[in-house]
């Protein structure tokens, strides 16, 4: 009897492997961080070889932690930081350049060139995405332009492109595949056909020979060829935010979740028809189970939330560990009039201002490091409110049927009770954290387990979800309005810094 399903979670700051039992509880876990590389201002890279070595390590360590062997594992799911772009040699498996991370802004000029007279929405009707440094297609074009011989080798079929799911799967099985959720974040896939768009690829100058085959999110792809999981099928792939949506059991239109990680990502299930936002949200594939119709989502992507806490720790030295920020912020009753807008990579949804750069506004001699710590946490909540207001605007415009009355939350930052209470206050909406907060890895495990019959259907996934804690709003309406107005004034001061 295969009792467990394993999930590989290749994230922005670390790689993890988690072993889950049939009720979705954690039986074993291992994690290892990797270095963030900043070769130039605005550039963010990862070493692909290091990430794979870390992945190998956490697989073995998680199995050891659970006491399981390959014979106990029914299937493996993969979830990953989306948009991060890697190109490797098809014969040797060696990357030709570091992975360019989703936060990286080096392709700003290229995006302007690709937009031409049509503007940033040139491809939005087919891809659901604006031209932005965020997505993989421009990053791939940059590699082909800048690495000597890369374009010619790609045209000859010698190179493979992939987001990190493809890289992990390649090293596990030798197969060059991706799923529809990750493909939908490249700007190269047609949302309706779920295939690579030949015209967009040609206009981007990207040879289709280097692209992975697109598959569903829950099906058997291949067996693992070596290592402690040899012989176990890889049967699920979901981009990290889609995986968290699945793990939160947001399986019906109108259900939404918000993940608090390196950035914040809110996804709203819109059903089997793609909905195109008029208010700055992204249209993306949410998941596809087997040969069933794809399910779509509207997404509000925020670039910097948890990484702002890291900045406070690593760049300013105000805290020694991320876990200290809550205690420091609790030393004061409010932000002291200070607002931090973390536009380190420009502003993502719903504003989409690549010219923006971060500011600290409202400083006086009264402001202390405790006020700044509180402003860091509040920035996450304010940005989340912007996304929810965009969703409500789309609903009011007739784009979708939405009655979002409770926000499901997950990710590392949801352990911060002060942040969660402020989030409920600034939204004037209850915030709910599930019992199992590792929803990203859990979603990938669910996708894999469904494909091999470990879970019989999605109703079992719904049955596993349970409330862990709930925060109710308690802030007076006048205070809520004043704080949000001041936040918006601070955001407007970030514009036009990068020309």
Describe the structure.
There is one protein chain. By secondary structure, the protein is of the alpha+beta class. Helices cover 33% and strands 22% of the residues. The chain has 16 helices and 23 strands. A hairpin with a 5-residue loop joins strand 2 and strand 3. Helix 9 packs across helix 14, helix 10 packs antiparallel against helix 12 and helix 12 crosses helix 13.
Kindly report how far apart the N and C termini lie. 60 Å
Average pLDDT for all residues: 92
Cα gyration radius (Å): 22 Å
Query: Mind summarizing the main beta sheet?
Result: 7 strands, mixed
Strand order of the largest sheet: 17-18-16-15-21-22-23
Q: State the total count of DSSP E strands.
A: 23
Helix content: 25-40%
Q: Low-confidence parts lasting 5 or more residues at pLDDT below 50?
A: none
**How many helices does DSSP assign?**
16
**What portion of the residues fall into strands of 2 or more residues?**
15-25%
Shape: globular
- Given the helix and strand composition, which structural class is it? alpha+beta
């Amino acid at each position: 009897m295969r009792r467990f399903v394993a999930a590989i979670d290749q994230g922005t700051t670390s790689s993890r492997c988690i072993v889950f039992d049939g009720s979705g509880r954690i039986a074993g876990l291992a994690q290892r961080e990797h270095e963030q590389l900043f070769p130039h201002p605005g550039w963010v890279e990862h070493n692909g070889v290091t990430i794979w070595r870390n992945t190998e390590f956490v697989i073995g360590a998680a199995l050891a932690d659970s006491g399981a062997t390959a014979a106990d594992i029914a299937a493996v799911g993969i979830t990953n930081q989306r948009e991060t772009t890697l190109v490797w040699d098809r014969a040797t498996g060696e990357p030709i350049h570091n992975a360019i991370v989703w936060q990286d802004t080096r392709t700003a000029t290229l995006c302007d060139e690709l937009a031409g007279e049509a503007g940033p929405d040139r491809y939005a009707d087919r891809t659901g995405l604006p031209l932005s440094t965020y997505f993989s297609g421009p990053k791939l074009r940059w590699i082909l332009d800048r690495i000597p011989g890369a374009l010619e080798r790609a045209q000859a079929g010698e190179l493979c492109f992939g987001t990190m799911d493809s890289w992990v799967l390649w090293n596990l099985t030798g197969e060059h595949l991706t799923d529809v959720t990750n493909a939908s974040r490249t700007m190269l896939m047609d949302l309706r056909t779920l295939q690579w768009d030949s015209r967009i690829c040609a206009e981007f100058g990207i040879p289709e020979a280097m692209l992975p085959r697109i598959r569903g999110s829950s099906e058997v792809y291949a067996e693992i060829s070596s290592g402690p999981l040899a012989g176990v099928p890889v049967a699920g792939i979901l981009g990290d935010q889609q995986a968290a949506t699945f793990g939160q059991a947001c399986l019906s239109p109108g259900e939404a979740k918000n993940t608090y990680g390196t950035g914040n990502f809110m996804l709203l299930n819109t059903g089997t028809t793609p909905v195109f936002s008029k208010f700055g949200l992204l249209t993306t594939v949410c998941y596809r189970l087997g040969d069933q119709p794809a399910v779509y989502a509207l997404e509000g992507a925020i670039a910097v939330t948890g990484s702002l806490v890291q900045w406070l720790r690593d760049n300013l030295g105000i805290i020694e560990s991320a876990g200290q920020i809550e205690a420091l912020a609790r030393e004061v009753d409010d932000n002291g009039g200070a607002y931090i807008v973390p536009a380190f990579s420009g502003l993502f949804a719903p504003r989409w201002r690549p010219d923006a750069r971060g500011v600290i506004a409202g400083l006086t001699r009264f402001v202390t490091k405790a006020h700044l710590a509180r402003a860091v946490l509040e920035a996450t909540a304010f940005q989340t409110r912007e996304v929810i207001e965009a969703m409500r605007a789309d609903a009011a415009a007739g784009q979708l049927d939405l009655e979002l009355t409770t926000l499901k939350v997950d990710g590392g930052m949801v352990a911060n009770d002060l942040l969660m209470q402020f989030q409920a206050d600034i939204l004037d909406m209850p915030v709910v954290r599930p019992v199992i907060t590792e929803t990203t890895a859990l979603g990938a495990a669910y996708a894999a387990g469904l494909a091999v019959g470990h879970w019989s259907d999605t109703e079992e996934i719904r049955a596993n979800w349970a409330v862990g804690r709930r925060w109710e709003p308690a802030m007076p309406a006048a205070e809520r309005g004043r704080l949000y107005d001041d936040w918006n004034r601070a955001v407007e001061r970030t514009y036009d810094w990068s020309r």
